[in-house]
């Protein structure tokens, strides 16, 4: 069964309807600047349970609660340190999730039973309009993981969401189309429950940016906080992903434009910059599966910042499903 109404024209009316659908317990997949999310009312246990079902995700993995502005941070979190406020002021809306001590509003079904809650204000007109419309009808926040089946590559287009989830959504659920995600890899997740920030998942907001804004050194020692996106194998296509070797005939190849394509190798992407690399990596991995390739070789970008986030995802993708 294929379901999930496809809304390609995000008019104000369409967004009001989508917000009401979320309020009524439905699921709405929506674009963000990082990847597409699969959203439900973060205060509705039954609706959130449907997210886990659609994704095939274990119920003890926490979801990020998306809010319209940093004004709502105090509704969802308690004991917010000053450095977290500084991060929110500087980088929201944006590709950053703050993990904070949860308030009573953040229940076990959304935090996976953890004493913390992940919060994010996404930087995408459609996401912000949806969140704003949801707030106007009394909504508090939209819980949304990436809109893919558990362990798979995150979707950066509405079509990719359909490929992943159409068979698992109800006919009344919706997929909002807001074009291709401009960042392309998931948000930086920052644990804000210690005296200084700690990165749980690297992304476009980098260590350097965090240290500059907070005046604090980012903690690097190990933590026992669970992050499902940090499972060894995650973000994986069906094709086997192999890193940093010369591709041979009939294999797929993803690398910066400066790397040439060996003969009869199938070039899947030639980004010119690290930013473009992040933007296209997931759609290029999906393309490998569409072409039925067995192996895709990726030449990783070097350096810190966003390149580090790309290498983090590729390492996990290379562990397979
Ligand atoms: O860019 C993003 O973050 C996208 C868009 C849709 O916002 N969302 C996303 O969600 O990547 P998801 O569920 O695929 O990955 C979120 C990660 C999970 O690994 C989850 O374990 C972690 O965030 N997380 C959420 N709340 C947490 C918490 N309270 N403590 C620790 N980790 C948390
Ligand atoms: Mg995910």
TrEMBL record:
EC number annotated for this UniProt entry: 2.7.7.87
| Pfam families in UniProt | Sua5_C, Sua5_yciO_yrdC
A Gene Ontology cellular-component term: cytoplasm
Molecular function (GO) terms listed?
ATP binding; double-stranded RNA binding; L-threonylcarbamoyladenylate synthase; tRNA binding
YrdC-like domain mapped to chain residues: 12-205
Q: What's a single GO BP term from this record?
A: tRNA processing
Catalytic activity field: L-threonine + hydrogencarbonate + ATP = L-threonylcarbamoyladenylate + diphosphate + H2O
Q: Which PROSITE patterns match?
A: YRDC (PS51163)
- Name the Gene3D superfamilies on file: DHBP synthase (3.90.870.10), Threonylcarbamoyl-AMP synthase, C-terminal domain (3.40.50.11030)
InterPro entries referenced in this protein's UniProt entry, alphabetically: DHBP_synth_RibB-like_a/b_dom (IPR017945), Sua5-like_dom (IPR006070), Sua5/YwlC_C (IPR038385), Sua5_C (IPR005145), T(6)A37_SUA5 (IPR010923), TC-AMP_synthase_SUA5 (IPR050156)
Which locations, inside or outside the cell, does it occupy? Cytoplasm
NCBIfam families given in the database record = L-threonylcarbamoyladenylate synthase (TIGR00057)
Family as reported in the entry's similarity comment: Belongs to the SUA5 family.
What protein is this chain from? Answer: Threonylcarbamoyl-AMP synthase
């Amino acid at each position: 069964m294929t379901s999930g109404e496809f809304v390609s024209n995000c008019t104000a009316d369409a967004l009001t309807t989508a917000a009401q659908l979320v309020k009524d317990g439905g699921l709405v997949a929506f674009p963000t600047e990082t990847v597409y999310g699969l959203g439900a009312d973060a205060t509705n246990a039954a609706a959130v349970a449907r997210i886990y079902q659609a994704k095939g995700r274990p119920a003890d993995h926490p979801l990020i609660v998306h809010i319209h502005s940093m004004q709502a941070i105090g509704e969802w979190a308690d004991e917010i340190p000053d450095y977290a406020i500084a991060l929110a002021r500087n980088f929201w809306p944006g590709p950053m999730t703050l993990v904070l001590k949860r308030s009573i509003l953040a229940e076990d079904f959304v935090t996976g039973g953890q004493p913390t809650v992940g919060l994010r204000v996404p930087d995408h007109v459609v996401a912000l309009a949806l969140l704003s419309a949801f707030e106007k009808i009394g909504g508090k926040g939209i819980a949304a993981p990436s809109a893919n089946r558990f362990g798979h590559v995150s979707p950066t287009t509405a079509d990719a969401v359909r490929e992943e989830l159409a068979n698992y959504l109800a006919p009344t659920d919706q997929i909002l189309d807001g074009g291709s995600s401009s960042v392309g890899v998931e948000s930086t997740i920052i644990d804000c429950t210690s005296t200084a920030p700690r990165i749980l998942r690297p992304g476009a907001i980098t260590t350097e940016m965090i240290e500059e804004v907070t005046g604090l050194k980012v903690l690097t020692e190990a933590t026992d906080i669970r992050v499902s996106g940090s499972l060894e194998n995650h973000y994986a296509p069906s094709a086997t992903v192999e890193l940093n070797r010369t591709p041979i005939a009939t294999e797929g190849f993803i690398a910066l434009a400066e790397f040439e394509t060996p003969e009869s190798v199938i070039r899947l992407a030639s980004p010119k910059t690290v930013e473009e690399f992040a933007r296209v990596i997931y759609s290029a991995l999906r393309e490998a599966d569409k072409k039925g390739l067995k192996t895709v070789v990726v030449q990783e970008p070097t350096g810190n910042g966003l390149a580090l986030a790309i290498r983090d995802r590729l390492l996990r993708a290379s562990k397979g499903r």
